[in-house]
Design brief:
Elements lengths: L10 H18 L3 E7 L4 H7 L6 E6 L7 E4 L5 H7 L3 E4 L4 H11 L6 E5 L4 H10 L2 E4 L1 H7 L5 H24 L6 H13 L4 E11 L21 E12 L2 E2 L2 E7 L5 H18 L8 H7 L1 H5 L3 E2 L4 E3 L5 E5 L18 E4 L3 E2 L10 E5 L6 E2 L8 E3 L1
Parallel strand pairs: 1-5, 3-4, 5-6, 10-18
Antiparallel strand pairs: 1-2, 2-3, 7-8, 8-9, 8-10, 10-16, 11-15, 12-13, 12-14, 14-16, 16-17
Helix pairs in contact: 4-5, 7-8, 9-10
Length: 382
């Protein structure tokens, strides 16, 4: 997909976001705010400006939206940032925070209070706090703005779900004895990059069903060769635009049906998924979702990965921890328009065998809406 064909949000959508952020600044009494990102991380920058963070970027959010400035660290990245950003773009200079302070000082005097969202490095934070007495953490306020999706955001997430489905189908097709996990993931990436998709995550776990030694997908490939009677778990997220990805979690066996253990693990995972998904309606608490997964412990199994998390704009609330983890479910209530991933990762108590199942769902007043078309279930390949 060429630059002209890339997914773009409308001017009206970008104004909606900036207005919502401006209301948060007013609520916290911060006339200015800084929104930071680095190394392709920091979703607030892209959400407000349309510029996917490369090395480093800092948005100076001013009292008037027309005065906002996006500071981009690498000088050679500035030209494309100016083409993609809805906000004025300038070079960040040697220090993005120092340049931001200079911009604010040039407009009068520095504010006594400023908001901050994003993981600003310590040296830059010390510089900021040394010149502005009151630095307010607006990270939670920003996360709250990402929970309910707009119509354009939902369209982007549906596209991300379709790309993730295509990637998962390609992954399944590549699971052949003799292929390495590197080769499988290359096929997975090609399926969405050829359609203009963006990288998000592609985790893959490969182990022998008869002698399992892996219970959750691995974040990095190892060169493991696929063999008959392997079991493969995956977590695949391809994006239509930065932070607008689907998420598919599935389990496959290679060249043989699932053993009794893996069949039992997946049956429990499917039951947990159904029990949690049935409760995805406005007003349900995160504790209700955690309680719905009781079937996992009742079957004598446990889990490693989080059961549920918000998605689409970051790893968002509610994050419901795995059963048995010494972390309580958060005090959080679902609302219509939220998108969440339900992903029961059911594993044996010794942590050697496990399965994945799940996907991204939209919370509606009528119950959960599937955003994915890839079929659920434990599937045999070959």
């Amino acid at each position: 997909m060429s630059e002209g064909e890339r997914l773009e949000f409308s001017a009206a959508e970008m104004r909606r976001r900036r207005a919502a952020w401006g209301r948060e600044l007013e609520r916290h009494g911060t006339p200015y705010a800084l929104v930071y990102g680095a190394n392709r991380s920091g979703s607030g920058v892209c959400w407000l400006t349309g510029w996917p963070v490369t090395r480093e970027a800092l948005v100076v959010v001013a009292p008037e939206a027309d005065d906002d400035v996006l500071l981009v660290s690498f000088f050679n990245h500035v030209p494309q940032a100016r083409r993609l950003s809805a906000t004025r773009v300038e070079w960040a200079g040697a220090s993005a925070t120092a340049t931001a302070l200079e911009l604010m000082a040039a407009r009068g005097r520095l504010p006594g209070r400023i908001g901050l969202a994003g993981a600003l490095p310590f040296d830059q934070y010390r510089l900021l706090a040394g010149q502005i007495p009151d630095v307010v953490d607006l990270g939670p306020a920003y996360a709250g703005l990402r929970l309910i999706k707009s119509a354009e955001e939902m369209a982007a997430l549906r596209r991300g779900a379709a790309l993730s489905d295509a990637a998962t189908a390609a992954l399944a097709d590549a699971l052949r004895p003799g292929a390495t996990d590197h080769e499988v993931l290359a096929r997975t990436e090609q399926a969405y990059t050829a359609q203009g998709g963006w990288h998000h995550i592609h985790y893959l776990g490969v182990t022998a069903m008869d002698e399992p030694a892996l219970a959750v997908p691995a974040q990095w490939p190892t060169g493991r060769v696929i063999r008959p009677r392997d079991v493969v778990t995956c977590e695949i997220s391809a994006a239509a635009a930065p932070d607008y990805a689907g998420q598919v979690l599935r389990t496959f066996t290679v060249g043989a049906p699932a053993t009794a253990l893996y069949a039992d693990l997946h049956a429990v995972a499917a039951a947990a998924f159904d029990a949690i998904a049935q409760r995805l309606v406005p007003g349900t608490s995160a504790r209700d979702l955690a309680a719905a997964a009781a079937v996992i412990g009742q079957a004598g199994f446990t889990a490693i990965d989080d059961l549920v998390h918000g998605f689409g704009g970051g790893y968002l609330p509610p994050v419901v921890p795995a059963p048995g983890r010494p972390v309580p479910a958060p005090d959080f209530v679902l609302a219509a328009g939220m998108t969440v991933v339900v992903q029961p990762n059911v594993v044996t108590r010794d942590g050697r065998a496990g399965v994945q199942t799940g996907e991204l769902l939209l919370v509606t007043g009528q119950g959960p809406e599937r955003l994915h078309a890839y079929p659920p279930g434990l599937r045999q390949i070959g």
